[in-house]
Amino acid sequence: MTPGGRDGDDQGLLLDARGGDGGSIAGLYDRHANALLALARYVLGVGKAAEDAVVDTIVDACGRGEAGDLRHGSVRHELARATYQRCRAPGPLSPAARSRAVLALCLHGEHTYREAGALTGVVGASLGDLMRDALADRALPVPV
Fold first, then answer.
1. What single string gives the DSSP state of each residue in 95-130?
2. Beta-ladder partners of 89
3. Residues 45-48: contacts with CB within 8 Å, 24+ apart?
4. What gap in Å lies between CA 19 and CA 17, rounded to an integer?
């Protein structure tokens, strides 16, 4: 085993992290935290809540005993899905936050527009309208 994971692949890092390897947990954080934080900030804004959502998501993912929950084969995809769900846990999102979430899931979470729409509850023509508006609206916060 190499430091921080089997052979550096995300699924190997996740398996090793679930086995308690601290280097693998750090490796997952190094690889995915910036993208997940950008997603969380698009939904929640800049602040501690976004940072906590990312840390809690990665800690939870590393604590699961089974590896069979990577339905889409991408650790980033599943971490982004879990981050979004954690960000919206306090309650429903405003329409503006949902449009930012769809865009952020696509830009930072390896989701297709269709997947992001299904996850956020926006489908069909509404998804197209939402994406057009989100891309045209330069008021989207730039994650820092």
1. HHHHHHHHHHHHHHS---HHHHHHHHT--HHHHHHH
2. none
3. 45/141, 46/141, 46/143, 46/144
4. 5
Q: Is residue 79 part of a domain?
A: yes
| Tokens representing residue 89 in the block | 């846990």
How many independent structural domains does the chain possess? 1
User: Which tokens is 22 given?
Assistant: 């601290």
pTM: 0.78
CATH number at residue 46: 1.20.140
Low pLDDT (below 70) residues in the chain: 1-8, 65-73, 90, 124-128, 130-131, 133-144
Q: Is residue 141 part of a domain?
A: no
Residue 5 counted as domain residue: no
Per-residue pLDDT of 37-68, as tens digits, reads 999 998 888 789 999 999 999 888 888 744 44
